[in-house]
Amino acid sequence: MSNPLRIFVPVKRVVDYAVKVRVNPAKTDVDRNVKHSMNPFDEIAVEEAVRIKEKSPKTEIVAISVGTTKSQETLRTALAMGADRAVFVEVKDDSTLQPLAVAKLLKAYADKEADKPDLFILGKQAIDDDANQTGQMLAGLLKWPQTTFASKVDITDRILKVVREIDGGLETVSTKLPAIITTDLRLNEPRYASLPNIMKAKKKPLIKLTPEDLGIDISPRIQTLKVEEPAKRVGGRKVASVDELVDKLRNEAKVL
Amino acid sequence: MFRPRFIHTSRTILNRNLTPLTRVKHPEFKRNPSFAQIENKHLEFFKTVLAPNNILHDTNPDDTSSSLIPYNTDWFNLYRGSSSLCLFPTSTDQVSQILKYCNKNKLAVVAQGGRTGVSGGASPVFDEIIVNTSKMNKVRHFDGVSGVAVVDAGVILESLDQYLEPKGYTVPLDLGAKGSCQIGGNVSTNAGGLRLMKFGNLHGNVLGLEVVLPDGTVLENLSTLRKDNTGYDLKQLFIGAEGTLGLITGISLLTPRRPKAVNVAMVALDSFEAVQDAFVMAKEDLSEILSAFEFWDHDSVGVVKREMMQDTSYPIEGKHAFYALLETQGSRLLENGVAMDGVMAQDAKQINAIWSWREKIPESISKSGTAMTYDVAMEVPLLYKLVEDAKDHFGKKGLLGPGNLYSNLLGFGHVGDGNLHIMANLDGFDHDGQEAMDEFVFDWTMRHNGSITAEHGVGVSKVNYMKRAKSDVQLQLMRTLKNAIDPNGIMNPYKVIPDK
């Protein structure tokens, strides 16, 4: 019987996946004045951690989020799904927060904890930037093994076995804890937050920190120059003859 | 907040077996001998009004492979007519020319939109010419200050909502069929739906109509004014008239502001009293921000899971007698000591999923066999008693359950509006079985001072019950109006108002 695991689950508050995203008038960003919710891949990460805890009740799940003050709602959702406690790293402006900064913050927090985490489960990517970097960068910083795009997870006696979805099919990898897992879509179906659990979550501990407390410089390394909508599709037209088609291809579309 | 469509818009009929023709199933309907039959000269005329691709003609419409089958048959596969001609006008003027001609030549006409009606009101009974509004689908005008939208009758409800979304407005009604139903049809049937408790019904939200009268005259009443007391409020006649007084071609609709945040919760309750208590508490606690309160019974969950949501887990574990869905616009949490258990959606995906369990009930019933669907109105405490009594009555006769005459019997509906939907599956097209259930449900409803149709309308399905549901005085006044506006009776005959 292995020692109870300590699982850290970073979660990100993003524009809700069902929202129709629009570019803001200044063309610097998308309109953020819309509904937000937990990144869907992070929901899957929380769910996986909760399932592990259901099998081994002594497991501790710590949900962590880096963002503006509203990220606390996202942490409450994680607590309502079954996380035990939450850590909120508050930043003034999250629009320039990038994966490398987040990975450094997560490592700094892990280093700070007296009881070290055995496992980080992260969503494979956030649906706003689609970066797919934080888990891998964190693994690099911690010098831990990484098992990304997990569609099946098994942990027995501190050996982690993960089935990964890759282009060629499914790959099974095995490694020892501590390790990083990033979740893919088919890993599980996240549960609903039940009303009793939402009530219980209000009493679970949530601590607040800042990047300064962790001694990390979160200034961005990349600057967004412009955000634009993709070019609108122009309607097709019918042509009356092959000659007309060739003419249009040569003179209008300029592809001949 | 609007969610993506849940009903697929495939034009195939749900069951493999096509329902028998309405005139065969219901021999009590007799074709009005004063109506003409379609002849070539009529076709030639229509060809001068409409482009050839807007005329669908088949001399053998009863054949199961006829191109007219989808237009002759209703969505629930309960009613099938024998029309050989379906017209798709693209302008109000074309509709005017069509009706003028039909009136002169005594050709009966059926107005048709998205064909999602559940009373057979948009399917021909015999050979009535179908006038389908699908190609009149433009949003004519929208005023961003008042929120008034002026639209063609053929605009699909969901399309209109998607048009309004970036402007910060929403359509005032929401129903499961939104991906296919057209606003003209919604107005003609005074459709209710899931948001009635918040936005009220179409009699209040429609500010004006453009209607083509049976003789082809165009009644232009497309006011965008919120208040206008000049004379009789003519538009109210056509709202809910189910196409029997004229063909609606344009609507001026008041649209409310779109809510910024929507929350949806599902709770489990162990008795219908608990459902009512939850409703009262929700209203107390949430008052103006409560935008929907729906309930359904445990049997409904089973049918939906089996037919449409096999791969999705139900949000609440355990077996409970009833479930309720609460939707609020705003972010207050519901705390309800009356619920046994409950979940709250954390994102749009979960909101959609929770709504699916309610919105897919009618479609699941259709997939599960021949659908029998009723929508009755009565005082809230009695709402579920009808289902209990029906289960008792037919159960005692051994007619309920898989393999029997009625394989499923379930209840769900809009608690706030006092509107119950009771649905069942019938074995095949057993006519006596259909009649027995109709009789039980309608008789029970009338005895308890309810309405035999809260929102679905009379169509053809309940016209035989109108003499019991309405007094002679009421029916006579309806006939007087009908005869005054449609003296030749060509508009959607055999429906809504029974013959003397």
Automatic annotation (TrEMBL), chain A:
Question: Protein name, please?
Answer: Probable electron transfer flavoprotein subunit beta
Q: Which species is this UniProt entry from? A: Thamnidium elegans
GO cellular component term, pick one: mitochondrial matrix
Pfam families in alphabetical order: ETF (PF01012)
Q: Give GO MF terms, alphabetically.
A: electron transfer activity
Swiss-Prot/TrEMBL GO biological process terms? amino acid catabolic process; fatty acid beta-oxidation using acyl-CoA dehydrogenase
Q: Which SMART domains does UniProt cross-reference here? A: ETF (SM00893)
Family statement: Belongs to the ETF beta-subunit/FixA family.
Q: Which domain of life is it from?
A: Eukaryota
Q: Where in the cell is it found?
A: Mitochondrion matrix
Q: Which residues form the Electron transfer flavoprotein alpha/beta-subunit N-terminal domain?
A: 26-218
The entry describes its oligomerization and partners as: Heterodimer of an alpha and a beta subunit.
Per UniProt, the cofactor note for this protein states: Binds 1 AMP per subunit.
Entry keyword set: Electron transport, Mitochondrion, Transport
Query: Any idea what job this protein has?
Result: The electron transfer flavoprotein serves as a specific electron acceptor for several dehydrogenases, including five acyl-CoA dehydrogenases, glutaryl-CoA and sarcosine dehydrogenase. It transfers the electrons to the main mitochondrial respiratory chain via ETF-ubiquinone oxidoreductase (ETF dehydrogenase).
PANTHER family assigned to the protein according to its UniProt record, in alphabetical order: ELECTRON TRANSFER FLAVOPROTEIN BETA-SUBUNIT, ELECTRON TRANSFER FLAVOPROTEIN SUBUNIT BETA
InterPro entries to which the protein is assigned, alphabetical: ET-Flavoprotein_bsu_CS (IPR000049), ETF_a/b_N (IPR014730), ETF_b (IPR012255), ETF_beta_N (IPR033948), Rossmann-like_a/b/a_fold (IPR014729)
Electron transport is among the record's keywords: yes
Cofactor(s) needed for function: AMP; FAD
UniProtKB/TrEMBL annotation, chain B:
Q: Where is the signal peptide?
A: none
Pfam families on file: FAD-oxidase_C, FAD_binding_4
Tell me the protein's name.
FAD-binding PCMH-type domain-containing protein
- The question of whether Cell membrane is a record keyword is answered with no
* GO molecular function terms attached to this record: D-lactate dehydrogenase (cytochrome) activity; FAD binding
Q: Which reaction does it catalyse?
A: (R)-lactate + 2 Fe(III)-[cytochrome c] = 2 Fe(II)-[cytochrome c] + pyruvate + 2 H(+)
Q: Which GO terms describe its cellular component?
A: mitochondrion
